[in-house]
Each structure stands twice: as structure tokens, then as C-alpha cells.
Amino acid sequence: MERFEPRKFITKKTQALHSFASEKGIIVAVSGGIDSIVCFEIALAATAKSNEKPIPLMLETGLLRVNEVKETEEYFRKQYGIELQKWEVQDRFLLALKGISTPEEKRKTFREVFYKTMGQALRSYSAEVLVQGTILPDVIETQRGIKIHFNVLQEAGIDPQNYGILLFEPIKELTKSRTKMLARSFSLPPKLLKTQPFPGIGFAARITGEITIDRIEKIRAATSIVESELADPKIFQCFPVLFIDKVTGIQNDTAILGDIIAIKAVESKDSLTAKPFNIPWMKIEKITKRILNEVPGIVRVVYDFTPKPPGTIEFV
Asked: Where is the GMPS ATP-PPase domain (predicted)?
């Protein structure tokens, strides 16, 4: 196997983007995660001698974690001295997803709204090129029919130009571990390197069944608890999932129907395979107690020990 050399790869992709964009104007789809930040660094390098600088744009879909947009804004201000562009489009995403409960339809619906919005953004900023952080596992899983990743277009037979987009994906041949090697070459902050992956479709991937504002608030609160309690560097990803099922619980000596939260924590190098992380029992007890006490309507907490395969890391 050929040795991966981050600096050579960066030079290659920087030159490719410079040639591809050719003063057309660039928007970088920013999520706050390492993939999109690496893409922004490549776009910065590609436009170093140009008057046209890349525009970082983050969509507030209503499906993000607590303070996700605010923290990303602060990062861009501190790291680059520029303002992150943010579009408050949660209403259009939540309206489109209303009543949809199957995983594939959720991802397809999210994809349609996302790229229509990005096409609109390109026109608004007089740009033509969208740079996004699709990585290799997204492409492989889509091509194999395991699941449709919303950010995989051409390999799924979709022409980005249908949305008015010239698409450039500099890292789609890389795994997460190699993307982190690029991040180190760019001297990105260590905190960013430790950031866990978060699905592109946000909490739509962690709510089984229909998505509602009430259910989003529950999973958002539970996510803050799980992420604050599980900080082991061996963990590739940890998160809660809100099930569609209602089960019997007890409140004030009275039977009630409440929700189930599953906790999942895995170790993985490339996200194509994963094994359950062995959470200490006392930590599981603490997380369970906090979720039951702090998240309204939850009456049962379970732990998912399923490896990948046969399961996938995300539930949706």
C-alpha cells in the first residue's frame, strides 16, 4: 500500500481546487466538525493569491447540538478572524421532515432540502462552487446500498448541477483517520482533533420514527449528558438515541407511558467497522440517573452493545 503523505495530498487538492474554481467563487459547507474545517483550510490555500476568498456557511437545520452554531462561529472568529455565515433554515427542514418516519426517506428528504438551500446560497453570494467534506466511508456505504448518505450525490446518480452547484469534494477518498492527519498538517487545535463525528443529518439520525420539536429537545438534552459524561479518548463516538416506542413507567406511584433512550459508545478507526466501548458500570448508572431525572418523559434507558457489522453506528 502506498504511504499516505498529508502535505503532498494537500498540495494536490489545493491545486485541483484552484484550477476547478478559477475565480468562480467558493462556498464551504461548514458543520463544525473536522471534515468541513479541513475542507475550509484547503479552500483557503487554493485562494491564497486570489481576491475571491472562500465563504464558510453553516445551516441551522434545527437538528444540531446545544451551542453547535455558536461554538463554530467563535472558532472561525478566533482561528481565522472572519465571520461564519449562518442561515436559520430550521423551519424548512422540520416542515419537510414532518410525518416522515423511515430512515431512507429521512435522509433523502434532508438531502433535497440541503442542496436546494445550498444552491440558493451560491446564487445569493454570487458563487458557483460548493466545497464539502464527504469522506470515503460515506461513499462506500452509499455505493454498497447499506444506507444513503445525504452528502453523496454523483455516486448515487445525482448531478449536483441539478441544484445549480459545481461540487468539489477534496477528501472523499480519505477515511476519518487520514482526514485527521490533514488536520494535524494544518496545525488545527487539539480540541478539534478530539471532536467526535456528528451525523450530517443531525438528530434526524438519532430519532427513530417521526421528528418533532419535542423529540428533538429530548435527544438534544440527553446528548449533552452523554457527551459530558463520556470523555474517554478511546471512544470514537458516543451518543443517545430516542426510540419511537412508548413503554410503561412509574411516576408518583402512577403508571405512565414514556420514552426509551438507548446509549451507544463505540471504538473505531474508519467507521466502516466498530466495536462496543466497555463503559464502566458506575458511569452507566450515573448517565442513566441523569437522563431519567433531567430529560422529561424518559422512563427507560438501555445500552446498545451491537458491533458494526451487523449493526450500523447510527440508528437511522
From this structure: 4-195
C-alpha cell at 217: 429537545
**Is 32 annotated as ligand-binding?**
yes
Q: Is there a contact between 204 and 170 (Cβ–Cβ < 8 Å)?
A: no
35 has binding-site annotation: yes
Q: Burial, 253: exposed, middle or buried (Cβ in 10 Å; 0-12, 13-18, 19+)?
A: exposed
- Residue 224 annotated as part of some ligand binding site: no
What is the tens place of the pLDDT at every residue in 6-63?
999 999 999 999 999 988 999 999 998 999 999 999 999 999 988 889 999 999 999 9
List of domains in the chain: 6-193 (3.40.50.620), 206-303 (3.30.300.10)
Residue 34, marked binder: yes
pLDDT, one tens digit per residue, over 56-106 is 999 999 999 999 999 999 999 999 999 999 999 999 999 999 999 999 999
Q: Is 36 annotated as a binding residue?
A: yes
